[in-house]
């Protein structure tokens, strides 16, 4: 294993931690201790991430929490935001600020 692999894995871990907290903030779920501050700190430490977005297709109701450089599930990032590929419609997206 080389150092690049470790960094890559840490980034994925950081993104996942922020994603989990962002969903809780959006749903107004109870946060554990300083979870929100930790997530905000991870975003500050990784300015390249940007804020996560809730991406939703109003047609098939699929939802994902994505950073602005991510594709997941049916959603493909385009120059004008995400698009739900199977439905062939633009998805709505809402930025989550931590
Ligand atoms: Zn859809």
Which structural traits does this protein have?
2 helices, globular, binds zinc ion, 98 residues
Could you describe the 3D structure shown?
- The chain has one domain (about 5-95).
- About 15% of the residues are buried.
- The protein is globular and about 40 Å long.
- A 3-stranded antiparallel β-sheet has the order 2-1-6, covered by helices on one side.
- It is an alpha+beta fold.
- Helices cover about 35% and strands about 20% of the residues.
- The structure holds zinc ion.
- The site of zinc ion has 8 residues, from loops.
Entry summary:
By secondary structure, this protein is of the alpha+beta class.
Uncertain residue segments: none
Radius of gyration: 14 Å
So what's the overall shape? globular
Order of helices and strands: HHEEEEEE
Distance between the termini: 33 Å
Report strand %: 15-25%
Q: What small molecules accompany the polymer chains?
A: zinc ion
Oligomer type: single chain
Structural class by helix and strand composition:
alpha+beta
SS summary, helix count? 2
| Total strand segments | 6
Q: For the report, how would you describe the main beta sheet?
A: 3 strands, antiparallel
Number of structural domains = 1
Helix content: 25-40%
Sheet with the most strands: spatial strand order: 2-1-6
Mean pLDDT: 90
